[in-house]
Design a protein that fits this description.
Structural class: alpha/beta
CATH topology of the largest domain: 2,3-Dihydroxybiphenyl 1,2-Dioxygenase, domain 1
Strand order of the largest sheet: 1-4-3-2
Number of domains: 2
CATH class of the largest domain: Alpha Beta
């Protein structure tokens, strides 16, 4: 074993409308679109991996196997902002106590507090004031 490791450089989201999705995520994260290369759009690099959007013909189908967690000082306020940007809340996950949302193409993501939060023995959260 050489002791070498790989790192996550970029996250690429397959999507039918990369312009729309890049605008949504760019507004949400405060990172403008900085490159258009073939079927890809790239947001300005911030902390962590780069974020790109690749045009595909097939829409999202089924539950995502990988999702983003985005951190906010006030997840409930972020909920309203995300809906104003074109996202939506996914009530099917309310029982778990997490704020689970979807972007305009249905890609799921969680909005979590910036700091630590508690989980019960079954992995349910309770950081929302509405007590989901």
């Amino acid at each position: 074993m050489s002791g070498r490791h790989v790192s996550v450089k970029d996250l690429v989201v397959d999507c039918v409308d990369p312009e729309r999705l890049a605008a949504f995520w760019g507004d949400l994260l405060g990172r403008p679109v900085v490159a258009r290369i073939g079927p890809y759009l790239w947001l300005a690099r911030g902390e962590g991996p780069g974020l790109g959007f690749q045009r595909t013909e097939q829409p999202t189908a089924g539950k995502n196997r990988v999702h983003f967690d985005v951190a906010s000082a006030d997840p409930e306020a972020e909920w309203a902002r995300i809906e104003a940007l074109g996202g939506r809340v996914l009530e099917d996950y309310a029982e778990g106590g997490f704020l689970v949302m979807a972007d305009p193409e249905g890609n799921e993501f969680c909005v979590v507090p910036e700091g630590p939060f508690e989980l019960d023995d079954d992995g349910r959260a309770s950081y929302l004031r509405g007590g989901r």
